[in-house]
Amino acid sequence: WVQEEAPDVLCLQETKCGVSAVPPEIRALPGLPHQFWASAEGRPGYSGVGLLAKTEPLNVTYGIGDPEHDADGRVVTAEFPSLFVVCAYVPNAGRGLVRLEPRMRFDAAFLAFLQRLDAQKPVLLCGDLNVAHAEIDLCHPRANRSNPGFTPQEREGFTRLLGAGFVDSFRHLYPEARGAFTFWTYLGGARARNVGWRLDYAVLSQRLLSSLCDSKIRSTVAGSDHCPITALLAV
Fold first, then answer.
1. Region 112-131: what's the mean pLDDT?
2. Is 69 annotated as a binding-site member?
3. Which residues does the UniProt site feature Interaction with DNA substrate point to (predicted)?
């Protein structure tokens, strides 16, 4: 699927492997020779992201400059001539919301990080942001108001991101699209019934809107409990 899609940049989240454990078939992906991997320090099998690029970035950084969160290997940022591409795997609030407070601290630190980047050049944020922003973004909003990914606090965090000059590319282009989900639990045949959540986003600086061609959810692509999304920009 990756070879057919032929992206200029491929962002992967929850890779759960360190640099040395990246499978050889991923290392050898045609057209994506520049690969940058982050993993959780001392916690194999936890978190992790990867950013793969067709052309070599000008610069690559890891983390968001916050020691509380950077050890988890959740963010890789690649600088290109016209924009920053940020690959992110945002923390889950956890069953029973046991990690909601750390999640809120991450959201605040991450927004500050994105704003620092945006002050230099436009930003494209791609990743599993672990929040369904509005009721339209999940199948059963009423039943999930107290569940991780749909708490008022997490939704407000995403609202603050949008209020800071960033745009949810899919919802900008398709404001009324229903049943547009990127995650389905493995339980109960949820994917076959499209009982899902939209947790994966391509968020961009407002001044990139004129470059936005499309934002697609590739819901027919199997292989994970999430599906890929594709942002098409003319930059």
1. 98
2. no
3. 226
